[in-house]
Each structure stands twice: as C-alpha cells, then as structure tokens.
Amino acid sequence: MSERAAVVAIALAAAVGLARAAPRVSPIQIGITTADIERAIALGRSPDVAPLQRFHEAYTIPLGDPLLDRLEIITEFRRVVLGTEDRVRLADITWGPQQAAAMLGPWRDKVSLVLHVTFSPRNVYYTMPRFDIVLYERPQPQAAGAIGPIELVETPRYVLGQPAPPGTPILGGLVEATYTARTLDRRGTYLAGIAFEGRELRRVEIDFSRID
User: Fold this and answer.
1) Is residue 198 within a helix (H) or strand (E), and if so which, with residue range?
2) How do residues 41-71 score in pLDDT, each as one tens digit?
3) Measuring CA to CA, which residue among 141, 117, 122 is closest to residue 197?
4) Contact, 146 vs 134, CB < 8 A?
C-alpha cells in the first residue's frame, strides 16, 4: 500500500470511528410510551456505572462558578432513570413500568432545568435568595421573547446536601424551573438566562436535540 493510500485508509477509519461515537441526535420526548419507560428502567438498573455516567453527563452542564455549580436538564425519560436509581438504592423490588408511570404522572409534558448553587460560608443565608431561569430562543435571543417557567421551586440545602431545617444557615440549594415541553422546539437550541436577585449572571446554551 502506498503512503498516500495508507493515509486515506487511516482517515476513513477515524471518520467511521467518530461517526459511531457521535451522540444520537433526536428531540426530547414528551408523553413517553411504556416502551420508553421500560428502556429508562433498564438503564437505571444497569450494574455498569459507565453507561449511566455518560447518560447523565449529556444532561449536565458544569458552570464552574463559585455561586453557580451546574445546570441539569430533567426530561420525562431522565426522571424515570433517576427514579429507578433511587429505587435500586432502596432495594425496592416492586418498582416497574406501572409504578414509574404513576410517578411520572405530574411530570408529563414537562421539562425541568435544575440549578445547583453554593453560597460562600461568609455569606450564609437563612432562606433561599431569589433565582430566576428563563429560556431565550436562538439565533436572536431577545429579552422580550423570553420563555418563563410554569413553576419555580427553590430548595435550600445544608451540610452534605441535606435539606436545611428552618432557621438553619444554608450553604447552597437547588432551583428547579419547569417548562411545558410542547411550547418548546424539541429540536432547538436555547439560551438559559440565570438571574440572581433580579440581575442576570450568565446565559447557558441548551441543545434539546441531544437528549431524550
């Protein structure tokens, strides 16, 4: 084989390898089926941690900020995976598609963005300060066209991630903003605008075409 032919062969092999490794492009699912639920349960029960870790990494955006730790996306499909992992840790042998579908009931047609925040020990809060998360459509993200959540829930956290008892200084928390999935372009890319006490801190790209 000539040197040029060898280079071409190597390039083709690399291209094939990249194509096989590339993430599957499909829109987030809404109203997932029983088959989807069974697939999510199988993934959540997987004894191999590597596939689970890769799965969750696709839904997690590290922010690398002293205040803003990371942003997670929770779809119907991922919610079943997370629920299954919880049941596995509890050794719940009764967990199956019927139980998962019942758990999923309030979350049908919804997608959530969960912001993990950590406060400086020198600025301890006793209640959660106000955070907001809105979605801007691309390619022209305008504040006037921002999509707000239908629900926003803030959960303070104490030491080691435990819920904070009332009156206890909190060191962090979770901010879960929930949106109606059908109002979003499920193959689209958005910018999530994160605001703290009314001031926008940053915008983070969300690509819904890369997740279930």
Assistant:
1) none
2) 999 999 999 999 999 999 999 999 999 999 9
3) 117
4) yes
Edge-to-edge strands of the sheet including 151-157? 60-62, 68-74, 110-118, 172-180, 151-157
Q: How far is CA 22 from the centre of its chain?
A: 19
Which CATH number fits the domain that encloses residue 113? Answer: 2.60.40.10
Calculated CA dihedral for residues 77, 79, 84, 86, nearest 10 degrees: 160
Name the 3-class secondary structure at 118.
strand
Between CA 199 and CA 201 the distance in angstroms is 6
49-58, 69-78, 114-123: segment of lowest average pLDDT: 114-123
Host domain of residue 52: 3-210
Task: Look up residue 111 and give its two tokens.
Answer: 């997608």
Supply the pTM of this predicted model. 0.81
Nearest Cα neighbor of 99 from 88, 110, 114 is 88
Helices (H), the chain: 3-21, 34-44, 49-57, 76-89, 97-104
Q: How many domains does the chain have?
A: 1
